[in-house]
Amino acid sequence: MNTEEKYRNLFRDNMEYFLIYSCLGWIYESVWCDVIYHQRGFLNRGFLFGPWLPIYGAGFFIILGLFRLIKIKKPVLVFLTGAVVATLAELVASYIMELAIENYMWDYTGYFMNYDGRIALVPGLMFGFLIWGAICVIQPAVIKCQEKYRNNKIHNILFALIIVLFFTDLICRIWYGSNFKGV
Questions:
Q1: Helix, strand, coil: what percent of the chain each, to 5?
Q2: Which domain covers residue 67, as residue numbers?
Q3: What angle do CA 34, 37, 38 make, to 5 degrees?
Q4: Per the domain annotation, does 112 fall within a domain?
Q5: pLDDT-derived band of residue 181, with 50, 70 and 90 as boundaries?
Q6: What is the signed CA dihedral for 167, 172, 175, 176, rounded to 10 degrees?
Q7: Which among 92, 113, 95 has a CA at the least distance from the CA of 104?
Q8: pLDDT 10s digits, 110-137
Q9: 48: in domain
């Protein structure tokens, strides 16, 4: 494999990771948060039209980089570290959003062990579970699938189609404005 092909595969693999975790984040937010936990019915929790929340895709790379840096591999430590890191990230993000747009996109006021509605125990534990699932279960399976189907034509066509849909969605949101209606 030449250098150009290596970089192309690296870019493609990372785009697949980004899209997979963006979609999984959207499923978590839309199904678990609204339908199951809050029992409000289905809501598109994303700011895009499609089934993706890019913050989860970007967050995956941050978490993956952090776990590679600190070399945590034991599932229990992955869960605990993930819960703490995600909770701290959510706290910091709430203050940044409040400074930038005078609001943040969630409110945990009624939750057990919440701090100023910005963070709470149950969402922190859920993020720990999600990170554990991503690092210990999903990512190894994704890597196996990529290795097995990297040169499969159907896989390549689906990947190209999904990339086009994602970037079309992103561009359309620039013109139409945000889907976000508040907490």
A1: 70, 0, 25
A2: 36-176
A3: 55
A4: yes
A5: low
A6: -140
A7: 95
A8: 999 999 999 999 999 999 999 999 999 9
A9: yes
CB-neighbour burial class of residue 69 (10 A; exposed 0-12, middle 13-18, buried 19+): exposed
Centre a 10 Å sphere on the Cβ of residue 87 and count the other Cβ atoms it contains.
Answer: 20
Amino acid at 76: V
What SS3 class is residue 115? strand
Distance CA 67, CA 56 (A): 16
Does the pLDDT of residue 27 top 60, yes or no? yes
Overall domain count for the chain: 1
183's CB contacts (< 8 A; 6+ apart) are 103, 105, 106, 107
Q: How far apart are CA 1 and CA 12, in angstroms?
A: 15
Q: Which two tokens stand for residue 150?
A: 């990297």
